[in-house]
Amino acid sequence: MNSKILLSFTIFSASLVFGQSNNTLKLINDEVQKNAEAYQQLKSATETIGHRATGTKNGEKAEELAAKLLRSYGYDVSFQEFTFNGWNRKSLSLLVNNQPIKAVALAHSPADVKLSGELIDLGNGLEEDYKKVTDKVKGKIVFATIGLLEGTPKTIENLHRSEKTALAEKYGAKGIILFNKPAGEILLTGTASVTGDIIKIPAINISLEDGLKIKQALTKGKEVAKIEMKNDVGLMKGRNIIARKIGSEFPDEKVVLGGHLDSWDLATGAIDNGVGSFSVIDVARTYKKLNLENKRTIEFVLFMGEEIGLLGSKHYVKQAMKDGSINQIKAMSNMDMTTNPKSYYSTMDSSLSFLNTLSKDIQQIIPDFKTTSFASVDLHSDHQPFMLQGVPIIGLTHSQFKVGALNCYHANCDTFNYVEEEGLKNNVITETYLLYNLSNLKEIPSKPWTEDETKNALIKGNLETPLRISGDWRW
Predict the structure, then answer these.
(1) Per the confidence metrics, is the pTM higher than 0.70?
(2) In the predicted model, what is the mean pLDDT of the chain?
(3) With contact defined as beta carbons under 8 Å apart, do 242 and 82 qualify?
(4) What angle do helix axes 57-72 and 275-289 make, rounded to 10 degrees?
(5) Separation between Cα atoms, residue 360 and residue 353, nearest integer Å
(6) For 232, phi and psi rounded to 5 degrees?
């Protein structure tokens, strides 16, 4: 029996028929185990392109590669262009008490900086730390951890580096130095801007080892930092890459699968987010290769600009709100640093029964996949703009990384040697099966939140404070 005849017996009726669905899962698993391309395509991209920073020539090459691959699988592909206030590093010198310290600029720091100032230790760099010293921050350079210090109560929520920088600006600091969390002289980058615009003060990252030395020195006396920094800033362009598979029965209803293609420039961005974006591309390949049915339209989207403020996904959602198509999006799934996932999750409790049933099927293929899903809300990836408009987020979580990979988050060691082929295959299997089910259900298990429901869910998830700091709180 050929695959097309077999597939005709696996299509959904009005409700899920899980025995038939299991046949489709077997087809997906067999195809991915034999013909998956994500691992090799990502390896090739890291070797031939390198980093994929938005607005750079490398970023443009990555956009073209993604479009080329999707077209080769039979998709019509479109680019969604956006402009932004771009930023690229040039040079940085940091001296503390006239001793040179290895450092990297955080993105969206000013174009030209030459200043010196006394360091003030702000601990975790949270609002409560500023309130303890009030106006003593003015005119000084804030020194704080990018994570949370040992001994911090577990009830304390950390803030994003951009939110910590926004607080430094708010309280009148002339700069901020954040020291890294993992050991090994690792330097981390990332945006220090909550809006994606150029910030008013320089923001810098140094290693854990240097940070602890400076922190100890500050207990004994005054420390003065001198910062000289140059960066390229100006209008730049990025492009989201969109491939569509039109639904056979509900073409005006959409399920969006996204992942950010861009990376930082200190390494090749293999983990963040090569593993996710190249898995999205291979999910699209697998879906087309098997000619799987989708009653709803599926959009495969490679977002650019995630690392510099979720720019691509914010632009996508803004355009969807402008043309009214936001109401067509019935669910969004995001693959960011996804590798060898072990469970499904959703922002909504009403999706969990559906996901638990899928999980039991997946466990037959991946024995340690969890059969109990959970609901959670969080920020700082491309699902955020969708979630803020009430769109149900349904995806994969509990990724399992190769030892050491997470220490290289946004860092100069995020390279392909941390990528595992099995992890990418499991990405594609679990996400393809999720998309197949979501796109063929009679009704998506979760309805979009109303304004009040969105507000209440964000408050319950302790997200009001960071959203206020970033200017994204509209209530």
Answers:
(1) yes
(2) 95
(3) no
(4) 20
(5) 11
(6) -85, 130
Distances (CA, A) of 437 to 334, 398, 422, 442: 16, 21, 23, 10
Residue 198: partners with Cβ closer than 8 Å, 6 or more residues away: 85, 87, 108, 109, 110, 111, 233
For every residue of 211-246, DSSP letters joined together read: HHHHHHHHTTS--EEEEEEEEEEEEEEEEEEEEEE-
CB 131 within 8 A of CB 142: no
3-class DSSP assignment, residue 461: coil
Cβ–Cβ < 8 Å for 300, 281: yes
Residues in the chain: 475
Cis peptide before 273 (omega within 30 of 0): yes
Take residue 275 and report the two structure tokens written for it. 């593993």
Among candidates 220, 216, 214, which has minimal Cα distance to 141?
214
Strand-pairing partners, residue 329, are 254
pLDDT at position 20 is: 55
pLDDT at 228 over 80: yes
Burial class (CB in 10 A: 0-12, 13-18, 19+), 281: buried
Mean pLDDT of 240-254: 98
CB 354 within 8 A of CB 446: no
Give me the residue label for tokens 């996949």. 369
CA angle 217, 220, 226 (to 5 degrees): 45
d(CA 56, CA 333): 27
Whether 458 and 393 have beta carbons less than 8 Å apart is answered as no
CB-CB contact of 229 with 250 (8 Å): no
Could you tell me if 329 and 443 are in contact, meaning their C-beta atoms sit under 8 angstroms apart? no
Query: CB neighbours of 212 closer than 8 A, spacing ≥ 6?
Result: 179
